[in-house]
Amino acid sequence: MSSREKPSTSAGRAQSALYVLLWPHKEAMTRRWSDVVHGTYPFETVGFLRTAGDRFTNPVGFRTEEAAKALMEAIFAETPDEEAIKKAVDEVIRVRAIQDFSPETAVGVFFAMKDIIRDVVKNSEDASAELMPALWALESRIDAVALLAFGAYARSREDLHRLRVEETKRQYSQLLRLAEKKAANSDSGSN
Fold first, then answer.
1. Are 90 and 147 a contacting pair, CB within 8 Å?
2. Phi-psi region of 127 (alpha: psi -120 to 50; beta: other; left: phi over 0)
3. Is the residue at 82 inside a domain?
4. How far apart are CA 4 and CA 8, in angstroms?
5. CB 160 within 8 Å of CB 153
6. What DSSP assignment string belongs to 25-39?
7. Is there a domain that residue 187 lies in?
8. Is 174 within the bounds of a domain?
9. pLDDT exceeding 90 applies to what percent of the chain?
10. Residue 75 and residue 140: Cα distance in Å, rounded?
């Protein structure tokens, strides 16, 4: 919607007013959310995640920052791009699933977006009760993102376990072939 068009409903006006209120704080909210994600890592890792922004020296930090930017853009879009949201969620969750975060820790960071947004609204002079329905709608959108994150976490963990089982099968198969070869060699050597 262009800035000259007026939303047709009071809910639409409240939503537009909420986005107008939040948009100038988007970068700060993105940084805060990235800090929340980084804060779930061990203390000795947090500083590195925050400072090294290169995709090769710090792939986790880089992916987190890029996903945070994409998520904020998608969440604040008038019509959210579901594919962009899924991709950003996968970027964050895949790493967290591999690193053995518990489900609640891995996914819980998405709920922190709600607190960050509430802080901005609470500290704004332009906040009013009329914004509450729009805020609730935005929080519902964040809840939907968290549900996507939980699904992505479950799929990533399933993939990880499947890969571990396949690797164990390969190792077992190699040991079996080696044992059979050794048994064949000892049988031919005893003749």
1. no
2. beta
3. yes
4. 12
5. no
6. GHHHHHHHHHHHHHH
7. no
8. no
9. 32
10. 11
The reply to whether 4 falls in a domain is: no
Domain that holds residue 37: 10-157
DSSP assignment string, 68-136: HHHHHHHHHSSS--HHHHHHHHHHHHHHHHHTT--HHHHHHHHHHHHHHHHHHHHT-TT--GGGHHHHH
Which amino acid makes up residue 20? V
Query: 82: domain CATH number?
Result: 1.10.490
pLDDT band at 9 (very low <50, low <70, confident <90, very high): low
Rounded Cα gap, residues 136 and 14, in angstroms? 11
150-173 in b/e form (b: 16+ CB < 10 A) is bebbeebbeeeeeeeeeeeeeeee
pLDDT digits (tens, 9 = 90+) for 33-60: 998 998 888 776 666 666 656 677 777 7
Count of domains observed in the chain:
1
